[in-house]
Amino acid sequence: MDLSNLSFFYGESVDVDAIGTIVYRQEAHKFDGSLLHDFDFIVLVVHEEQEEELTVEHTLIGDLPCQVLHVTTESLQRWLIAGEKGDLVRCFMEGELVQDQGDRLAMLRREYIEFETPLRDRKMLYEFSQFLCIYVEAKRNMQSGYVIDAYQCVLDSLKHWARIELIERGVLPDKAVWEQVKELNTAIHKLYEELTQSTETIRQRVELVLLACEFSVMSKMAECSVLLLQILRSRPKPWSIEELIHHPELIMVRNELPLVMRKLVNRSLVKETAGWSELSGYGSQGIRYTAG
Fold first, then answer.
1. Model's pTM, two decimal places?
2. How are beta strands 18-25 and 41-47 bridged, if at all?
3. What percentage of the chain exceeds 90 in pLDDT?
């Protein structure tokens, strides 16, 4: 395909503040994304910073209709780890690089394809934190008698558990995660079938899965939290929760981090100590964390 016009227009002389630009041709039979719509070309412009994580332009370059997507590197990395915005990620992975300062986008592509550490550790922690929060919500729903809501939470938590199993095997999870897991014939797929196809009551099925989660995934907390434990060991001084929430490597799990930390403390994987905190008023002491 000839992208010379697009390459010329979106070269280094135009988006001088962009760290990279990718041009993706949308084949006619692939018009299936709500973000892509029916544009012949998608131009993905990646910035270090911008006011919004995603901005959209519709433009003509010559006589070619194009959708131009401006994203930040932080947002792009988050979508890659979280498995979100699949159509946009496809543009990033399959499009033609026409601008790439310092080969940063090429390196990010390569890291994603090879799926080695540290990407695997980041994704493992992300999936575990998501699983843990949904699992806790499922237990609360059951305690409140909201069985159908608990069922939905358990179904969602199982999907994160399935992704954890795939990551353990060095497999990059995709949208069809249950098809991936089915091919491996793992226990999690059997549990998924038990939840969705069993003749037992919904309450019984949910209780079974919650029990399995408690004894199986919880035993993998150390493995799933390798990245977090490494950060805790990276300095002799204990960490506050505020410092951890704002750590650049933990941005992806900042909302779930307080719950994850409490679970790690309960499992003796993390130790907590008291220390004076600038944020704690009235002479109180803040809690600090170190690896157990």
1. 0.85
2. antiparallel
3. 62
